[in-house]
Specification:
The complex is a heterodimer of chains A (about 220) and B (about 220).
Chain A (H helix, E strand, L loop, with lengths): L1 H16 L3 H20 L3 H22 L3 H8 L2 H7 L4 H30 L7 H25 L6 H28 L5 H30 L1
Helix pairs in contact in A: 1-6, 2-3, 2-6, 3-6, 3-7, 3-8, 6-7, 6-9, 7-8, 7-9, 8-9
Chain B lengths: L2 E11 L2 E12 L3 E5 L6 H9 L6 E6 L2 E2 L4 H7 E4 L11 H11 L4 H10 L15 H14 L4 E5 L7 H16 L3 E5 L10 E4 L9 H6 L1
Parallel strand pairs in B: 3-8, 3-9, 6-7, 7-8
Antiparallel strand pairs in B: 1-2, 1-4, 4-5
The chains are: A mainly alpha (about 220), B alpha/beta (about 220).
Chain lengths: ~220, ~220
Amino acid sequence: MNLFMSLIKRDLNLAFRQGFDSLMVVAFFVIAVVLFPLGVGPEPNTLARIASGTIWVAALLSSMLSLERLFQTDYDDGSLELLALSPVALEITVLAKVMAHWLTTGLPLIITAPLLAVLMQLPNEGYMTLILALVLGTPALSLIGAVGAALVLGSRRGGVLVSLLILPLYIPILIFGVSAVDAAIGDLSTRPHLFILAGLLVGALALTPWASAAALRQALE
Amino acid sequence: MNRFHGKGLICVRSEHMVFRGLNFDLSAGDALILVGPNGSGKSSLLRMMAGLLKPFDGELLWNGENALDDFDQHGANLHYVGHHDAVKPVLSAFENIKFWANLRGAGDAGIADALTVLDIKHLYDTPGQFLSAGQKRRVNLARVIAAPAPLWLLDEPTTALDKDTIKRLELAIQKHRDNGGMVVLSTHAEIEMAGGEILDVSQFAPKHNVDEQLMV
């Protein structure tokens, strides 16, 4: 457990010192959402109808933006070999790295989302559910994304490839994330949607570290 | 008393056989020096010993048991120094060493000792991005010295090191062997290793005739 924490601490430390990664993710998120009122027009009813969908799609895309770097820098400078050879199981290492990735990209998205929801005229009933759905959904995005990031290691143009691999897998999270918010606005029960999101998160938590670790071992050969 | 040996190892890289039928046997205190021309498979053999590269055939045994059965345990038994130094540009030399040492449960005393052995105390606070190639290599080696592990796998450890540091490294290796450790290293440069066995990897290369290439 201590080792797990020290792995997370290292990645957070690196993220804060070298950069603007999480800042860039948030900036992209904001700009992507702001484009919609400009494109669709400022009519409040139209905006309100597409608000949750827009915010979710933008969150998906911006969380993917930083995925490529999840393992790439460690792969390039040899750290990944040493992490694989450390006494900590590679699956646990992957989990720690994903956790750090979520803390530096997913969490800022969740914090920014309500502000953008104001901009998109999201009805008041939707806010709590939007945040809840993002809290359940964004960690799953990072977990699933890690598999893609591990698979494209060592290939050129990994960033584009990662999008092609991962975006289709994001679809269930998008569907239930949006439908949860829609249910809240329509005064229906949000629980089934949130439960399915939670189920997706638990499933990803159980399966993806193994898949990522296997892909990393393959990349190191 | 640890024993690490390999039997009938075959290495295949992108459908090309690099070496075959390679055996080695290391007991506590032994040193094995891998020599051979470029591309003869020295690095591949070291990666294979570390468990990063799966042998095409043959086995690696740690105290008589298949070393690759428990990958994490095997990783804990060894230190691997590869071509890259794994030094993060934004962390100081000390933070770099400390992270790797802590992962293996070593405390600050071991790190302080390693800094002295390799003479990099003055680099304590220097961020990785301002270190020269030789200094980065020393930081990487300090990580090895800071946390004890019975087997050291060093791939060209003398690259970018000055004469004085090579001497220091030789002493560190000698001390490691005196304490019952094992060392395997590949090198082109001169490095003194009392009683070290020399293994020419190129002598296990398959004969280059066309029929055999096709059979592989």
